[in-house]
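Q: I have 537 residues here and want to know how they pack in 3D. Can you give me a structure?
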Amino acid sequence: MDQNIGQAILKGETALGIEFGSTRIKAVLIDQRFGTIASGSFEWENLLEGGYWTYHLTDIIKGLQEAYRELKQEVQQKYGVTLTTVGSIGFSAMMHGYMAFDSAGGLLVPFRTWRNATTGAAAKELTDIFQFNIPERWSIAHLYQAILNGEEHVPQAEFVTTLGGYIHWLLTGSKAIGIGDASGVFPIDEATQDYNAAMVAQFDELIADKGYPWKLKDILPKVYTAGEQAGLLTEAGALILDASGDLQPGIPLCPPEGDAGTGMVATNSVRKRTGNISVGTSVFAMIVLEKDLTAVYPEIDMVTTPDGSPVGMVHANNCSSDINAWVGLFREFSEAMGFKSDPGQLFSVLFNKALEADADGGGLLSYGYFSGENITGIEKGRPLFVRSPESRFNLANFMRTHLFSAFGALKIGMDILTKQEQVSIDSILAHGGLFKTPVVGQKIVAAAMNVPVSVMATAGEGGAWGMAILAAYMQNKEQQERLDDFLDHKVFKDVEGQVIHPDEADVKGFELFMERYTAGIAIEQAAVDHLVENGRG
């Protein structure tokens, strides 16, 4: 039992971050050295109801309470003290989506999450009007689609916010939002660090004939940047978070953030010319820009860091699923031959074979599309592997091709940033399961992006830890200390990372592969058109 940590907890020398992810709510308590001292979590799943993906309010509150209760219990067990206060608190959640409330604080329609693809008409029209890419996930797209649909609840809207903004409001009474989360609500003006005033005026003019009793700015949460205080925990809020009554009110809260922002913080990727790439079932890269883009690109979402710098975000729907399926096939073969294989060893052996391959993958081609891919315009999933008689078909090239393909769609979006827009990138921090095998995944990403790629020990800490760091920054920053300096000089100063620089032969090989990949999209489209799915087509 660490008595020093116990005393620090009693004195409130801590920061609490709670993040609502799509499958898990996680709470993390950190000390003044930014290390995790306790955590708790709650597993949950979204529901498809009435044609919308949603989570029930009762589950939102239950998950919040359970994650906190588990953390509080761990504090008691590990340090022998009861958690009654913390130095600062921050909430974050999956970005975008739509929560609309009436004047009595009642939810007007069930929470519509980022996953809903129901706002295509609204997103397209707003993109054309603003000349700014409005993705279907964004809150303003949900609001405008509800207007286009003539939904009865719209005139009654008193407050429209995100899930993170809702939790913050529930516990503080403050209708606040962090600028990173706000950038998934409505376009942000970097100069004013607020919603883009000209676009707000355009929107109000667009809907003026509806005669609603509100203007857009009236119903959106107030925008705050990292480091500002955005409210205090109320008595009612303290009882919601800790139903036992042990937690005391009055704790300062930092602005609520989106999961993109907490991911940037957790990977120390908020400084201009830096970025991070997150790899899993899908893959996305976020690059902090020095200047605005010159054109509107449907492949690139414009969001911001928690301290308001513009970020170009490229998101591809497919990444590792097809690789996992092939590794599963190899595991079946291994077991059929009488060899019991450890999954980690199997991935390691197969991934490392890719390092022995021809630079371009030997003329092989694959598309790991388990679902449609927005960047390449493919509407359905058809995983595909194809080769010519002249291709050099061996295990090394096979594995390299699948690893290349995992970043193929992302590469198309990234090339818009680096080649068309001349965006400079000094370094990228990579995180996700694909990087558990040392070196291989990093070398592939370095080849694809043509920039140094790092993997750091903290990359697995996750968004709740990143949110706790933002809460600590608000409480502990020195006067005028910028977020990127706070992260560099305090949070990450002793964190070691392995950096891999792009290899010239790998870069050229990836470019050759991409020529094949882009030319072969028609093959993938043919698979969608002609490969019957479960007898239905």
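Q: Anything worth noting?
A: Residues 454 and 499 are 4 Å apart (CA to CA). The longest strand covers residues 36-43.
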